[in-house]
Amino acid sequence: MSTKLINIFGFRFRYENTKEINKISFGRCCLYQRVISDKKEQSSVKNIKDNHDDKFRIAVQLKGAMGDQLVGCNYVNALYNKFRSKDILIDIYCRPYIGETFLQEADFVNQFFLDTDFSIQDEAYDLYIQLNRFPEILKYNEKKLQKYSVICKYVLLCENFKKQNAVFFTGRSEFDSILNIFTLIQNKKRFNQADIDNFLNIKEKFGFVPKLPESSVLQDYRLQKNKYITLHRGVDTSHSSFSNKQWPLENYNSLIKMLKSNFPKYKIVQLGVNKERCPDMKGTDISLVGKTTLTDIACLLKNSFLHIDGEGGMVHIRHAVQGGKSVVLFGPTSDAFYGYSENINIKENVCAHWCEHIRAKWDEGCIRSGGEALCMQKITPKTVMDKIKKNMRISDDNSNKNL
């Protein structure tokens, strides 16, 4: 048997090759790729009820990209706390990198599986929930449900919400802008969008903190806690690598010069999935583009003095692991909807309204200019640097001056 690292969704995972199967291991979750078809591998998903027939089992499938999945994990944690009982077990079906990095020792999760294994046909659960932006009840065991009044009330709440807002459950991304406006009208944001009628009382600060090998990762990359600044310029693979969510590369290069002048004792570290999607920035001290696992990324983001990025997955990771401030550069997406309160959220209101999902391929060209996004062009390196100096000085005063 041989073991090596492979890339899936741009992140590295352990790969074991045997005569019968190729197994990609994600801690408590495994993906099997059939090599010899005459030997039938028994699916753990099909047999999960065997030892728990007396339990009420809930399956939650998380949809969406990195940020959506992390927000989804926080939703499941809130669900667990609301339903808390030794007789209730919750399994999560998610992207493999989420389980491997963030759910290994999470007490609110019984087991986690690949999102592609999710099926309401296997009769393994008593309640099936699919979470995109809002929870959708797909199926439930009515007889067992009657024993749990809180769950019964929640199922009824979700079903009534869907009847009143059927357009939100079509799965069509062009309705996302309507969903976002609907959420803002309710005085909510992305982190608690799924909390119908505030039934779960989801807070901005995530209710769980993933356990991470922070010390060993920092040692591997020869970095000290709070003594480096991380930068990232990239978007997930659902967007073009030329997405207008991104700040121009030359602006990052100019900002790095300013950072090195104003924060000379701090190393400048570039993060990214690969050099094709995250081209090299000039002037960094360390480039870790294409060299990290997602666990590494989470550890590095948690311990950096400051993170600078566009609105996207790494900002959600830093918030989830409670890593401190990020400078978040907003363009076609809404800072009011996606922004976390601890961050330095920067947006130039060039247009009367943000344009995310206003039309198809909204992120591949500015609606007004037809080319690069005017809103991102308007944010200057000096504007960013001025806000960093102002906000980080306040942080220093409250933390015995790190500078």
* CATH class category of the largest domain: Alpha Beta
Q: What CATH architecture label of the largest domain applies?
A: 3-Layer(aba) Sandwich
The proportion of residues in beta strands is: 15-25%
Order of helices and strands: EEEEEHEHEEEHHHHEHEEHEHEHEHH
Radius of gyration: 22 Å
What percent of the residues sit in helical stretches (DSSP H or I)? 25-40%
Explain the layout of strands and helices.
Elements: E1 2-8, E2 11-17, E3 21-26, E4 29-34, E5 56-62, H1 66-83, E6 88-94, H2 96-102, E7 111-114, E8 127-131, E9 135-140, H3 142-145, H4 149-164, H5 176-185, H6 214-220, E10 228-232, H7 249-262, E11 267-271, E12 286-287, H8 294-303, E13 306-310, H9 313-320, E14 326-330, H10 335-338, E15 344-347, H11 374-378, H12 381-397
Parallel strand pairs: 5-6, 5-8, 6-7, 10-11, 10-13, 11-12, 13-14, 14-15
Antiparallel strand pairs: 1-2, 2-3, 3-4, 8-9
Please describe what this structure looks like:
With 403 residues, the chain is an alpha/beta fold. The chain has three domains: 2-34, no CATH class; 56-198, no CATH class; 214-397, Rossmann fold. Helix content is 30%, strand content 20%. It has helices spanning 66-83, 96-102, 142-145, 149-164, 176-185, 214-220, 249-262, 294-303, 313-320, 335-338, 374-378, 381-397; strands at residues 2-8, 11-17, 21-26, 29-34, 56-62, 88-94, 111-114, 127-131, 135-140, 228-232, 267-271, 286-287, 306-310, 326-330, 344-347. The strands form three sheets. Strands 12-11-10-13-14-15 form a six-stranded parallel sheet, with helices on both faces. The protein has a five-stranded mixed sheet with strand order 7-6-5-8-9. Helix 6 (214-220) crosses helix 8 (294-303) and helix 7 (249-262) runs parallel beside helix 12 (381-397). The longest helix is centred in the first third of the chain and has 18 residues, at 66-83. The radius of gyration is 22 Å and the shape is globular.
